Amino acid sequence: MHRLIETVLGIFLVLILAATGYAAGDEIALNDQEYFSGPGFSFLLFHNNYEVGYQGGLQMILNDERVLDSGDLLLETRPGTASPEMRVVRREVDRAHGTATVFGEIGGWNTGYQLICATDGRRLSITLRLDRPVDWNKVEQAGLRMALYPGTYMSKSFQADSGSGVFPEHYSAKTLLIEPTRLLRIAQEDSLHSFSISRTDGKLTLIDTRQDGPESWFLLVAPLEKGSDQREVHVEITPVLSPEWRRPPVIEVSQVGYLPAQAKRLFLELDPREHTSEPVKLFALQQTGEKKLVKSGLPTSWGQFLRFQYATFDFTDVREPGVYMAQYGNQWVGPFRIAPDVYEPAWQPALEYFLPIQMCHVAVKEGNRTWHGACHLDDAEQASAGRVYIDGYQQGERETKFADNEHIPGLDWGGWHDAGDHDLPAGSSAITTLALALAQEEFQPKLDLTTIHRAGREVLLNQADGRQDLLQQIEYGVESLLVSYRVSGHIFPGIIERTELQYSHIGDPANITDNRVYDPKLKPGEVEGERSGKLDDRWVFTNRNTGLQYHTAQALAAASRVLRGFNDPLAAESLATAENLWQYEQTHAPVFSPNSYVPRDDGGFHSQELAATAELLITTSEAKYRDHLVALLPAFRNISGEQFGTGPGWILVRALSRVADPGFRTAVTELAKKWKAAADQRAAANPWGVRLPLDVSHPAYKLETRTHIHSSFVWGEGWRLQDDALRQYYFHKYLPEMFGAEPLMATVNYVLGVHPGNNESFVSAVGVYSPLIAYGFNRADWSHIPGGVISGVSLVKPDYMELKQFPFLWYQTEYVIGGAATYIFDVLAVEKLMGQ
After folding, report:
1. What's the average model confidence in pLDDT over 54-66?
2. What's the DSSP call for residue 388?
3. Phi, psi of 360 (to 5 degrees)
4. What's the rounded Cα separation, in Å, for the pair 520 and 405?
5. How confident is the model at residue 3 (pLDDT cuts 50, 70, 90)?
6. What is the pLDDT of residues 115-132, one digit of tens each?
7. CA 610, 615, 618, 624: dihedral to nearest 10 degrees?
């Protein structure tokens, strides 16, 4: 009887779908990866869980746009009640009935909840079920909540039984956008992203949460009735499905173009229901105004990668300098160049705009434009012992002579704002300084377009001062690393704003503090010279971390080599400090105090120690560094190829010629072979031949619990690929019989547009199509910083690669200084390897 009922219900559903124009396969269904999918529709159930960045919980993708995110239990506690830690623990799927249930726990409250999702083929039902009624003595508001993506819905309409309106572009002093309603229709004029949501057991509210900052999203809430014993909320989402809709093909080429002798492949990203039956056509743009067809042919199918199909079209044989465009079906891409100098305008904005604009403690001007004023001249106060702070900063017992909140002098020069915020983490500064120093050593670009006035704390863009710009940036990075050593004998982890409001400041950083050192003897608002009674100075976190000391020693050793002849006193101080840091760590027990942007304990194979020792050997040729590398051989000879290749391997191969010990050379070359095999496996798992981690190329569809809130999946992979390309340059240089240059070339193409999701360059203002809306300090203006490098397209597990044009998604569109430095290195490396 049970099977008979199921059969009758199934026939009934098919008849309903047929009557409404839906064919089998056109309806919403629960798929093998445990999410609901239909034509142009996906509904994910905690496949991702990075809630603080709107990347997790219940998520809806509608016709290639993630429009709904962070669906989960809303639990707002009353004043005086601590917010409990909520976490999801498992997902259960009932394929026979087409339901999926996510189970959650409310930590410390001895209770839990379920999110039950089901479909009838046209709509999706979501039921929030609490294990027991809400304790309203603790809770101000509870219910089901979901966030709506502003980038899609700003200036789009909404209609309800209680009224109608348009989503505002900016917060307009109206938090509640509409009176509570039972039915809400979203963006009916935008058929690709329209849906309705309804509720029969209560009301829905639509909220604009941007009153505290423009980064927030719109919020849909289905609240439980306050004071009631209600335990369930039930809503239904009905998307506008378009079975005939197909995602337009994405044509992927390098946004800056190609060198004449370079391998050239165009990539197609296609809807999985499409077939590559049309030719690709390549045109050269003529002075006469015509497009000259220079090559045409059917693309070669690569197969499926994650959600989409891919194909390639090789035009390596096209070498004639000129400007080109390509066509596939109704889609065009370009213009892009083939020329011997295509990379010159590609790397220079990172050096001539982005890095100078990120400089702290100075004003940065470009003609009649001021990018920002001189900032943080009151740096910095000793962070108080025991402080656990935002962004990973922590202060243990003090190791300096300074009391809690006492001003530490000398920290007001050097360093770059790390990213879209304004902290100065030493780990990031060391990474950046090292990459820039190696770029100078290998490629020696002689470029002078920037003036730095130290006495006037002023940087002038597009004005030469007779000093090479790359060396000046290395100099500035070195200064930022040396200042803490000068006052304490070790490297401080970093400097950061003292309040969360200052930390989240958007706009000119000169406005964050008053630039006067705080003096507790002065009253608030009182000023005496360069001191004031305003407590707004940044904190410096000062605990020693062994990995950071070694990492800084490596950066300073490399920098000392290229600063010789440019700034000899600084070069000498850099090398002396590097050697002193190394020697201190050799004679003291290692300490891996947790902090922001500092290395973690690597499990005993001494990665940072190996790197610093090898760099000092390269710099000084002293026997003690050579002997120590050999002494460390037992600690690293049995590590994995991945540990070697993503760790100190590239530095060790640079030192091979300086270590005569045969055991050392054998160990390094054998580990290099292991890394080559692992790296080749990575490159073969995706169409572009870049070394995406295998857990990105083949992601799991398991539930992501909140214990994984710092999952690396949230970030785009661009910066890590750039790091890999830098390492690959040295593997190829010193072991050319084992490593080729192709992965480096592929990475540069990837960063410049040949990647999934779209054809956008990851470098602002570089290429015809680039991120002109990005997460810099000017993000509230929906603007960009030329030469800033974003992390780029990121994985929304289990199968969707995404790059939104939205300035507040830091995990896709934020700039970091290390990304700019490795990008400069990689592009210059391609130029050198191609003989330009």
Report:
1. 96
2. B
3. -90, 160
4. 10
5. very low
6. 999 999 999 999 999 999
7. -50
Instruction: Using the predicted structure, report yes or no on whether residue 575 has a pLDDT greater than 50.
Output: yes
Determine the number of helices (DSSP H) and then strands (DSSP E) in the chain: 20, 40
Q: What is the C-alpha separation between 498 and 389, in angstroms, rounded?
A: 9
Of the candidate ranges 42-51, 126-135, 291-300, 563-572, the one whose mean pLDDT is the lowest: 42-51
Residue 120 DSSP symbol? -
For residues 612 and 583, the answer to whether their CB atoms sit within 8 Å is: no
Q: What share of the chain is helix, strand, coil (3-state, %, to 5)?
A: 30, 25, 45
Distances (CA, A) of 433 to 19, 393, 429, 828: 66, 21, 6, 16
Q: Above 90 in pLDDT, residue 733?
A: yes
Q: What is the CA radius of gyration of the chain?
A: 29
Which residue's structure tokens are 């029969």?
200
Tell me the two tokens of residue 19: 């009557």
Amino acid occupying residue 50: Y
Instruction: With H, G, I as helix, E, B as strand and everything else as coil, classify residue 203.
Output: coil
pLDDT in tens, 738-768: 999 999 999 999 999 999 999 999 999 999 9
**The two structure tokens encoding residue 82:** 């601590």
Burial of 677 by CB count in 10 Å (0-12 exposed, 13-18 middle, 19+ buried)? exposed
Could you tell me which of 282, 271, 277 has the C-alpha nearest to residue 299? 277
Which residue, 402, 377, 407, 398, is CA-closest to 521? 407
Which neighbouring-strand residues pair with 763?
Answer: 789
Residue 301: per-residue pLDDT: 96
- pLDDT-derived band at 227, boundaries 50, 70, 90: very high
Q: How far is CA 579 from the centre of its chain?
A: 34
Region of residue 528 (left: phi > 0; alpha: psi -120 to 50; beta: else):
beta
Distances (CA, A) of 569 to 469, 479, 520, 563: 18, 12, 37, 9
> What length is written for the chain?
836
HSE at residue 260, side-chain half, CA atoms within 13 A, is 9
Sheet strand arrangement including 539-541: 381-382, 539-541, 494-496, 424-425
Euclidean distance between CA atoms 577 and 478, whole angstroms: 11
H helix intervals, 369-425: none
What does the pLDDT look like over 136-184, one tens digit per residue?
A: 999 999 999 999 999 999 999 999 999 999 999 999 989 999 999 999 9
Identify the pLDDT of residue 704: 83
User: What span, in angstroms and rounded, lies between the C-alpha atoms of 731 and 221?
Assistant: 54
Is residue 186 within 8 Å of 218, Cβ to Cβ? no
Instruction: Give the Cα separation of 816 and 257 in Å (integer).
Output: 24
Q: Tell me the CA end-to-end span of the chain in Å, nearest whole number.
A: 77
CA dist list (Å): 507 to 466, 514, 780: 31, 15, 8
Distance CA 451, CA 70 (A): 46
Q: In whole angstroms, what is the distance from residue 398 CA to residue 635 CA?
A: 32
Contact 807, 779 (CB under 8 A): yes
Residues with Cβ within 8 Å of residue 160, at least 6 apart in sequence: 178, 179, 181, 183, 184, 185, 204, 206
The pairing of strands 527-528 and 218-223 is unpaired
CA 789 – CA 719 distance, rounded (Å): 8
With the CA atoms of 800, 805, 806 and 807 taken in that order, what torsion angle do they form, in degrees rounded to the nearest 10? 120
Residue 218, strand partner residues: 148, 208
Q: State both tokens at 835.
A: 């003989």
CA angle 173-179-184, nearest 5°? 110
DSSP category for residue 344 = H
User: What gap in Å lies between CA 371 and CA 365, rounded to an integer?
Assistant: 6
- 193 C-beta neighbours (distance < 10 Å), count: 21
- Give one DSSP letter per residue of 607-632, joined into a string: HHHHHHHHHHHHHH--HHHHHHHHHT
Q: What CA–CA distance (Å, rounded) separates 814 from 792?
A: 9
